[in-house]
Amino acid sequence: MKNLKLILSLFALILFLGCSDENNDVDLDGVNAPSNISALTTITQDNSGNVTFLPRGEGVTQFEIYFGDATTAPVFVNPGGTITHKYKEGKFQAKIVGVTINGKKTETIQEVTVSFLAPTSFEPTITIGSNLSINVTAKAELETFFQVYFGDVANEVPVDFMQDEVITHTYLNPGTYQVKVVALSGGVATTQKTQSVTVTNLFAAPVPTIPAANVISMFSDSYTNVAVDTWRTSWSQANLEDIDISGNKTKKYSALNFVGIEATTTPINASAMTFFHVDVWSSDFTEFKVKLVDFGANGAFGGGDDKEHEITIPNPEKEKWVSLDIPLSDFTGLTTRSHIAQLIFVGAPSGNTTVYVDNVFFYNQAGSITAAPTPSVAASKVISMFSDAYTNVTVDTWRTSWSSATLTDLSINGNATKKYSALDFVGIEATTTPINATAMTHFHTDVWSSDFTQFKIKLVDFGANGAFGGGDDVEHEITISSPAKGSWVSLDIPLSSFTGLTTRAHIAQLIYVGAPSGNNTVYIDNVYFHN
């Protein structure tokens, strides 16, 4: 019967290909052997010993299943099909064989446990992934299979899985969910555990772009890290977990009041550095503080030559990575920096906040970037898109989905700044409320880069219909060749220079372009129209 099925399948395939194109040759020898062969085995909870096999694999035309008990002849199952077999109690080595249309085979041995007792030694593992996802695995004794309920829908149908299999689930919304994992055998009794998990929009922190030669790193996958004695001192008031987010190592501090981090064995000499950097993410903090402590030449805290200073970041943005690039000159009390042995993070509300931390390092950037200059144009003459000096209009996004750049919102000397790294081009849109700049005469933006060779600015008016490509769009792009590096460049461009921008009543798009393409970093501040 098996050979007949394969012959018929071959005949049908050849007939189909021959009818569709008489010149096609069917190379069956080129078909690869099956891969990823396994089976989901579930058992009914009625002491019957009835186990159902759902074989799985890639490139399979048919499965052969050898049950591993007294039944020696295989059964044949088509992809997507199941077969039920009655076992006695015990452990059995079932063989699952995947067969291709040309007869190539791949097989695997899968243990089937049949017991009518409740599973024992049950150990489910739930790990928080990124972007609202979790991963679930489990192991136990006397179990045949597992089920997991993710707790996010009513009348939930559980997902069946096997030991060592990883089940990933993505929630629609952030929140706390009750995840129930059940170990099942062939009897009525089951073993189960429920765990509360909190998921967020958390994803891996942005990848730093500072050259390694300019960095002293305490914690980052991007650099070689110096020795740190502890990331949570005994006197800290916080819980520490070392976690992995999308393959990126991250520190998670929960119930955070304050946490001490020490490098006392080998204090850090940051005398040649100009900035301290850290990326932080939280869904609930209202304030964040960073303290640096230099223990002095004697290397002992309280030795008489300690220096320290604490920086406060009020109301940091939530549910996103906040990149803090703090000039070391802002740590005014840190008058020496050659024996930095202690770093302290403080969160608020005290003891009731969770903060994720990554990319903790000192660096020296050519040009020593400071905050952009403060604009002096009267607010009554300005339409501001982004500036701490003015009230800003609504901007839908500072990085469209079709952009080729990485956006980081950071603070420099307490001044909000946009950082575009790996910049080719970035789209900024105000489509919900387009900007009427008809009464304005200039477009202004401050830009800073240590590596750009060219910078372009495009303004696009979507027209009265408010839709891009609606037939009444107008636009123009200005090129700034060889802009100065390592200092803020204030661009005040007459709108009359945007000669193709013949209407300005519905400006909905601003595009920045950097060169060398995809290999430059540009800081942006004070983006506005003015008269």
Automatic annotation (TrEMBL):
CDD domains: PKD (cd00146). The keyword Signal applies. Keywords: Signal. InterPro entries: Galactose-bd-like_sf, Ig-like_fold, PKD_dom, PKD_dom_sf. Residues 1-21 form the signal peptide. SUPFAM superfamilies: Galactose-binding domain-like, PKD domain. Residues 150-200 form the PKD domain. This is PKD domain-containing protein. It comes from Flavobacterium yafengii.
